[in-house]
Amino acid sequence: MAVKTLHKFLLVAGFVSLIHAAYSAAQHRTYLRITEQTFSSLPFDIQLQAVISLIVLVYSILQVVGEFREIRAAVDLQAKSWETLSNIPSFYIFNHRGKSLSGNFENNVDASND
């Protein structure tokens, strides 16, 4: 439990650090405009902070999200029996009272009782 909390803290710290690096880059550009200097590149510390923040973010996101599933569908299908493979939910038909809530519903039962 404590490890999961640590990874969530790293995730928040990575986002805050990346936002700070972006703000520092914007401030550096503003400083260069005010002093009328040409922009060649960002200072090394801002670049380093952005790269380290991205690495921390990627690592913590991978740890917080959880287990990855196999890309190949055959791996998931190997554990299923033949009966469950032929079970196709897209072919289910539901006939229930819910359609009577529709405005276009015709009550055929009441018409036959008249």
Automatic annotation (TrEMBL):
Coarse class of the protein's main subcellular location: endoplasmic reticulum
Entry keyword set: Endoplasmic reticulum, Endosome, Golgi apparatus, Magnesium, Membrane, Signal, Transmembrane, Transmembrane helix, Transport
GO cellular component: early endosome membrane; EMC complex; Golgi membrane; plasma membrane
Subcellular location: Endoplasmic reticulum membrane; Golgi apparatus membrane; Early endosome membrane
Domain of life: Eukaryota
Membrane association type: Multi-pass membrane protein
Keyword Transferase attached: no
GO MF annotations in UniProt: inorganic cation transmembrane transporter activity
Signal peptide: 1-21
Membrane-traversing stretches: 48-65
Subunit structure: Component of the ER membrane protein complex (EMC).
General function of this protein: Part of the endoplasmic reticulum membrane protein complex (EMC) that enables the energy-independent insertion into endoplasmic reticulum membranes of newly synthesized membrane proteins. May be involved in Mg(2+) transport.
Annotated family: Belongs to the membrane magnesium transporter (TC 1.A.67) family.
The protein's name in its UniProt record: Membrane magnesium transporter
Organism: Lutzomyia longipalpis (Sand fly)
Lineage, opening ranks: Eukaryota, Metazoa, Ecdysozoa, Arthropoda, Hexapoda
